[in-house]
Inverse folding.
């Protein structure tokens, strides 16, 4: 009987220990599972690092001070870098219709504030219009202004009188109108002096008979 009692006691103790170990194991796993959601919640509530910014303006396309330059088409508007400004005849109601591929060839004259009027420019005609992407584009006498991609040097007017994207492009006068007249001819080249007439050859005296 003592042997059976001891055996029963040993079995009971072993079962008790197994239960304690299992309980500890369950308690540990439960604690870990509770920590994970806490970390996730903290991460999800932390402020997002990304900030939604308003449409940016490419500095290379900024207008600068609008001024007047004299060239083959007379007095025309140019931007702060001396590049020619154009109007697009398809634009109506003071709104730009140049979007998509058009913008690559004809970058809009963008501004971040009030456009500045230089000498010869009528400040009351220089305003802005809001483009479809939210950026501000300079406007003169109701015409949104653009530069031309192929005008790589100040004063070039390669975009004058071109028909692209459905309408004509023209340089702009200080009065705010399209200049449609042909370029002024360059100073006449010096006329070639008339060729010297060759004096008639001297007549040969008749040979002696």
């Amino acid at each position: 009987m003592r042997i059976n009692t001891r055996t029963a006691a040993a079995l009971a103790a072993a079962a008790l220990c197994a239960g304690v170990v299992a309980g500890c194991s369950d308690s540990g796993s439960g604690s870990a599972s509770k920590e994970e959601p806490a970390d996730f919640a903290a991460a999800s509530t932390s402020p997002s690092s990304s900030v939604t910014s308003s449409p940016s303006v490419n500095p290379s396309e900024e207008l600068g001070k609008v001024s007047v330059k004299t060239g083959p088409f007379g007095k025309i508007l140019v931007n702060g870098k001396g590049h020619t400004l154009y109007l697009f005849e398809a634009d109506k109601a003071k709104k730009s219709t140049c979007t998509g591929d058009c913008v690559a060839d004809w970058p809009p004259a963008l501004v971040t504030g009030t456009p500045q009027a230089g000498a010869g420019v009528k400040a009351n005609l220089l305003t802005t219009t809001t483009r479809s992407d939210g950026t501000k584009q300079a406007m003169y006498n109701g015409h949104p202004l653009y530069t031309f991609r192929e005008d790589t040097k100040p004063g070039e007017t390669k975009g004058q009188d071109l028909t692209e994207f459905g309408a004509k492009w023209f340089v702009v006068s200080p009065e705010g109108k399209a200049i449609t007249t042909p370029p002024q001819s360059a100073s006449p080249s010096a006329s070639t002096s008339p060729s010297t007439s060759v004096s008639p050859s001297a007549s040969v005296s008749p040979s002696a008979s």
Observations:
- Residues 20-25, 27-60, 187-204 have pLDDT under 50 and may be disordered.
